[in-house]
Design a protein that fits this description.
Helix content: 25-40%
CATH class: Alpha Beta
CATH architecture: 3-Layer(aba) Sandwich
Strand order of the largest sheet: 1-2-3-4-6-5
Protein name: DUF4365 domain-containing protein
Number of strands: 6
Radius of gyration: 13 Å
Shape: globular
Order of helices and strands: HHEEEHEEE
CATH topology: Endonuclease, Chain A
Largest sheet: 6 strands, mixed
Structural class: alpha/beta
Organism: Mesorhizobium plurifarium
């Protein structure tokens, strides 16, 4: 399982953008429909809990928060050895670097699906 596999499954979907828990449930349904094995609310450390873990790919879902706080959260997640790639799923319009701490980061802009 790679980040690109995850992006391929999710990029065609229109997800609810008003409630983060509803959004996470909708993403989980897509993972289930695609037969993907995942864990929810995966604890990386005492401080860090990522929304989904699919093998060595971490997926974080954000519909609120400042660009700076989202970036710093993803930066912390990239420090964890268990993750090799990261996917940020968000409707917050922002640019994102292609890598953090040497790990590829992919950004799925949920707002684009509604255009």
């Amino acid at each position: 399982m790679s980040a690109l596999d995850i992006m391929t499954v999710l990029c065609r979907c229109r997800f609810p953008l008003t409630d983060e828990k509803e959004l996470q449930a909708a993403i989980a349904r897509e993972f289930n429909d695609a037969g993907m094995d995942y864990g929810r609310e995966h604890r990386l450390s005492e401080r860090d809990v990522i929304d989904f873990r699919l093998g060595d790919v971490g997926v974080e879902v954000k519909i609120k928060g400042s660009k700076r706080s989202i970036y710093h959260q993803m930066e912390r997640y990239a420090e964890h050895e268990v993750l090799k790639e990261l996917v940020l799923i968000s409707n917050v319009p922002m640019g994102f670097p292609p890598a953090l701490n040497g790990k590829p980061v992919y950004f799925l802009n949920l707002a684009k699906a509604w255009l």
